[in-house]
Amino acid sequence: MDNWITWRKHQRANLLARREAIPEETHHNWSIAISNMLKQGFPILQKMNIGLYWPFRGEYDPRPAANYFKQRGAILALPVIIRKHAPLCFQEWWQEAPMKDGAHGIPVPDNTKPIVIDAVIIPVVGFDQQGYRLGYGSGYYDRTLAESNPRPLIIGVAFETLHLDNVYPQPHDIAMHFIVTEAKIYQTLNNKLIPISINQCAMENTLTAPLRKRRGFPIQRIQPGRT
After folding, report:
1. Which run of H or E residues covers position 44?
2. Shortest CA distance to 97 belongs to which of 83, 80, 84?
3. Which of 47, 124, 189, 190 is at 20 to 30 A from 175, Cα to Cα?
4. Is 155 helix (H, G, I), strand (E, B) or coil?
5. EC class of this enzyme (predicted)?
């Protein structure tokens, strides 16, 4: 697609409006379902340094699930923009951590220590059948993930209503390893999003994550001709 920038801008606005229009009770119930999927499908996160985010504009709130993992041994961190077009810095966060206003007024940790993350829970405006996400368009997560060493486990979280056929990924875009919605857990395999059971997800991560944590998790980028 030649005009992918215009398409993404239009689609992003539509999806944000759709997400912000979700009734409060529905949003609450869907969020609980996503949290339960994360807790049951990713027990390996209990032993990891987890990057998460502060919810914004109707996003799923990952903090309850993240605190569940923290109570079982995980270390949590929130992203901080150090400078424009630079990778994000993840700084340690806990419920009573000192905070300050960051970009767009979103709270960020106030001078807590930097954390090298093993896994990251990423906000999603939209996602497609190949495991790529539509974000807000700044590219911070893609730059951060491309430069991370070792590369973390990437878990996108979104509501099922934000599922698209194609977000027209570009060479700089990085696919997610898993996407969790209120209805399903998806895994990205061979450029395709595959629904898997909670038990399959838990077993896959329990068996492979310790080795990948040391070596880094592979990333998927779009191949020429696949957009």
Report:
1. none
2. 80
3. 47
4. strand
5. ligase
Strand partners, 188: 193
Contact 99, 127 (CB under 8 A): no
Q: Would you call 35 helix, strand, or coil by DSSP? A: helix
Residue at token pair 């698209």: 164
Written as one string, the DSSP assignment of 49-113 is EEE-----TT----HHHHHHHHTTT-EEEEEE--STTSPPEEEE--TT--EEE-GGG-EEESSPP
Q: Does pTM surpass 0.70? A: yes
Q: Is 49 helix (H, G, I), strand (E, B) or coil?
A: strand
C-beta neighbour count of 221 within 10 angstroms: 16
Domain 4-149+161-215 belongs to what architecture?
3-Layer(aba) Sandwich (3.40)
Structure confidence by residue, pLDDT tens digits, 45-102: 999 999 999 999 999 999 999 999 999 999 999 999 998 889 999 999 999 999 999 9
The pLDDT-based confidence of 27 (bands split at 50, 70, 90) is very high
Beta pairing, strands 153-157 & 119-123: parallel
Note whether 37 and 65 are within 8 A (CB).
no
Question: Do 136 and 125 contact (CB within 8 A), yes or no?
Answer: yes
Token representation of residue 74: 């995980």
Q: Report domain extents, the chain.
A: 4-149+161-215
Q: What pLDDT band is residue 204 in, cutting at 50, 70 and 90? A: confident
